[in-house]
Amino acid sequence: MTQAADSRVAHLPTTQYFCPSGDYDEMWRRADQDPEGFWGEQAMDLDWFKRWDKVLDWKVPYARWFVGGKLNLSYQCLDRHMKTEVKNKVAFYWEGELGDSQVLTYAELYRLTNNYAAALKRLGVKRGDRIALYLPMIPALPIFMLACARIGAIFTVVFSAFSGQALADRVEDVEAKIIVTSSGMHRRGKILPLKDNAVEAAKRCPCVEKIIVVKHTGHNVEMDPSRDVWLNDLLAGCDEYVAPEHMDSNDPLFVLYTSGSTGKPKGILHGTGGYSLWIAKTMQWAFNTDAQTVWWCTADIGWITGHSYVVYAPLELGLSSVMYEGAPDYPTLDRWWSIIEKYGVTILYTSPTAIRMFMRHGEEWPAKHDLSSLKILGSVGEPINPEAWLWYYRHIGHERIGISDTWWQTETGGFMISPTPGIQPHFLKPGSATKPMPGIVPAVLDAEGKELPNGQTGFIVIKKPWPGMLLDIYHNPELYQKTYWSRFPGYYLPGDYCMKDQDNFLWLLGRADEVIKVAGHRISTAELESAIVGHSAVAEAAATSRPDEIKGEAIIMFVTLRKGTPPSVEIKNELTRHLRATIGTLATPEEIFFVNLLPKTRSGKIMRRLLKAVATGATVGDTSTLDDGASVDEAKAAFAELS
Ligand code: PRX
Fold first, then answer.
1. What single-letter DSSP state applies at residue 601?
2. Nearest CA to ligand 1 atom 11
3. Residues in domain Acetyl-coenzyme A synthetase N-terminal (predicted)?
């Protein structure tokens, strides 16, 4: 890997931003040497009900920021703009898949947030209660997130492509008393029945008292009057002001489930003060935003990117944003480019998977539209290959604007490594996320924890806490300690490979653990395996991935069937359906191979390295620790036969 990365660096052209002046090196040094002074100054840009007593309380592995400070994120996003010209500015240009649209100003968003907060209170929701938000990309989702923040209810957003069962797992873990959903959602001309999934989850989770239903699709929805309530009915008589709760800086704001090395997704818990500050500052630094910015982050709000950079940071900064409900290439392949032209989008922030998909469709589609409003481009979610970077740069940016490739994670709250045109222009290298944000002190370590010289690939660690760092794993501090802090004690372990080149540019090279990134969506092999063995025909299973030209990685599964079930196309389709029903559409495997034995070590551990090698057609390498060499040949034969 080291070699491959090095040769990429050697062959890449560089380009430059045209941006305002500032001193990145000086800012980074200041944040490193005097974090309390630096962040104390930055935090003055937020509105605090009560100033903090201490900027940072750091006892490995817990960082607590702005201790004693009181604030409310919905106040940061809305109330404080009511005193300025932002009040009548557009907060969201919403565009539905069917071509319908809605424009929401800050004043309207403020009023609606208060109404929704009043409605939640009317249902008995109190500070600290948990609410699950299972909604498509419609304005009700950010409004509920703001309303929850306003009254101090902890919310968990569940991505709308997750199944009813996956929703139930999350609702159960977080003990949500309310699920908010919509009648359904539009996707590629079809209506997906979100309400039905919510009912399935509520039936499995006794903690759920109510389902609030937003009417979004026209189809008939069955309502159980003892449990279900239409949002519109609930809002009647809720036209009132709700005072924002004075939240402690370290009070939880939300839980967002993400995949790790275990079979069950873990609840990443984010706080209020540090998180609010981190996302707003990093957004400014990475994208040089200003009052004229028309921002479009194409991520679904169900992921951290949507939480931080569709909803909260743009609102904190008083920006106008585009929010789009539907598929990127529906009903025509130029849907996105027409949206950019229509709203005069100045910053487009999207994923390498989307870029690669558009690359395949061809440059004639963006060429139909005037994209000259664009000033900066962004990328997130997975490593961007230089070819995709250059296509984006040429055909969307027309070689006149830079790309901020932002590396970060659910756990980090906001951007960690990214170009910072909002501070100072610097050179870019296609495929590198470039330099750490002020306050981020990364290092690249070998397996023993020794810092590697530039040019070598190892594990990235973050040596110091930063304000957006997760508070904990919800209800599981042991897992928090084990996952992030045990391998290299004292350092945060993100789980990615990284290489720092001779210019100190960082290259994030993908996951170093059992996490797969399919179209930028995070899913673990353990989660896939535990889901598929839930099917009565499956005896054992192992999941791995192979590189995919569009999605980055594609899921490959090796399965041994129970006696009595012979391999067949029918059972393969059945298992695919089972995975989609258990987890959601993102768990769809590219291929399922049936084998009689999974390759294992003498101690019974599945040899994942070997399966991966087989799935990708690479050489298998050392198999001396294998229990049964025959199983390797079998796996290889299965692959050769079926692929
Ligand atoms: O492997 C890295 C990859 O996405 C992982 C985090 O996934 P998630 O928590 O779902 O958050 C995605 C959105 C922030 C990381 O561990 N990743 C994310 N951004 C990049 C990236 N890999 C390379 N370059 C990036 N810009």
1. B
2. 409
3. 24-77
